[in-house]
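A favour between colleagues. Tell me how you read the following sequence-structure pair.

===
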Amino acid sequence: MAKTGTVDGGGDPVAAKVVELKRELQRLVKAIAIDDCDDVNLESLDRAHQILSFLKEFKIKRSLSLKLHESVVAAVPEEFRCPLSKELMRDPVIVATGQTYDRPFIQKWLKAGNRTCPLTQQVLSHTILTPNHLIREVILQWCKKNGIQLPDPVQYSEDEGLTEADRDRFTSLLKKMSSTMSDQKEAARELRQLTKRIPSFRALFGESPDAIPQLLLPLSKSKSPDTALQEDIITTLLNISIHDNNKKLVAEIPVVIPVLTDSLQSGTIQTRSNAAAALFTLSALDSNKALIGKSGALKHLIELLDEGHTLAMKDAASAIFNLCILHENKARAVRDGAVRVLLKKIKGRTLVDELLAILAMLSNNQKAVEEMGEMEAVSCLLSIARETSCARNKENCIAVLYTICFSDRTKWREMREEESKHGTISHIAQNGTSRAKRKASGILERLNRAINITHTA
């Protein structure tokens, strides 16, 4: 990785040119090596010499650039450094806990399967990354003052420059998606690998309006596609959706969301899980939340969560949480049976952190609150609030309890008994998060008022 502050970042066209030239040099050297001594192509030798001269000059300039910036980089303010990379942040983003990280490094952390904040170790209620425009602006001002140029954050990634040969290969693979079954399977498998390994290939799909429909052609034309082919195509679609610039484009192509919704219901469990993950990453945009909500996908995400496949539950839960940030999707989720499934899993102590966060989000829906009361949510939530050491879980439990109890007076007795026996609510009122303290104090005030009224009567 380039040192912080140098000008050879992922968005520098000179660096992209260097990558392309190195690839060309590899091909030339290979061709020269296999030619007979008498048949060596002189033009190839000249071209190889030109490339080597350019690379040598680039290396010298880069070395000088590093030395010029070395003293400045050492003085980077601590608050401008990413807690993960310890380097100057180029694309600062905020996670659910409010901490700021450089986008590529927190993305790598999340892609590795982590669902906690690296600094606080709190479980993330969601994995949406929100740009920290304020910090980026301050960093840019500091860089300008110190003569450091940062690459464009959209371009700053692991991308390597694509050659014309790469683009031709991309076009050829897409054409195969309308060919024979064996061609389709071979192309889909390769596209899956390319979009996984090379971010530039994800960006290519955003450059052509026909690329994604071509990719999905085998699925949109068949009601019972080959399962291996389906898995490769859906996984490729997930890889494409990870690219921020693709999210709006992908979701607004008419065939995409129906194909993902169908894939939640059939195919391998990996296919179904990746379809949920694709809906999750697409739902980072509010406009996409609305499109996905109207499609009926929530019902099938809830069914996938209910089935209980370990591989798929977390992706389904993440997608449901993201979608329910939009108010109208909360009503859809409740209508589609979310409360029953959430409480069933929570009572079984499955994905408690994630599902409690969704339940708390739904607790401002009156129908959801009524269902929680009918399904004996109070005793379940009280036991979790008493047992868990996680402050966020306590907060979500008490927030839901607050809503239920202020909506249904018959639940006050159960709350009084809990408080008398364990002092759970008082403990949260004294030691919880600021929100948990407010909610717990509100419950205690109501409990005391009810006791006073009873004594007076």
